[in-house]
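Task 17 of the worksheet. Students: predict the tertiary structure of the chain below and write it out as structure tokens. Keep your answer in the requested format; marks are given for formatting as well as content.
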Amino acid sequence: MRIANPVLSVPGAMQALLALSEAAAATGVDKDLAELICLRVSIINGCGACIDYHTKLLREADVDDRKIYAIAGWRDVPYYTDAERAAFALAEQVTHVRVSDEVWDEAAKHFDEKQLAGLMLVIGAINLWNRMNVGTQQKAA
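Model answer:
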């Protein structure tokens, strides 16, 4: 580890990120879907600490193990709904900082404006967590 986690070191940072997550949850985005998105984005970003954390949360929520373990190959397995697939595609493209109209329009078929905003907050927040954890070499607990 290079330094302590910035979220724990900077006064108010943890509260701010928790408030962001609470705001996202208030938009009606399904909690399990939000956790699956966090897991998928953490895999893309190579954040072992977040992969470990979100896998644990999903297992504690009794999400089908197939959905947890196959998330990296979500396009190739039948375990996800069309709405979940649209959310994963959006999460991947936002993470890579390029969202096509096709992906946005597909997500908009499944989520209203408030939920789309919530998805963007979930995706943005997990990308921030991943970047802080990877940058400071945080390890899985």
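Marker's comment: The helical segments are 6-9, 13-25, 31-45, 48-60, 65-69, 82-95, 101-110, 113-135. The chain has a mean pLDDT of 96.
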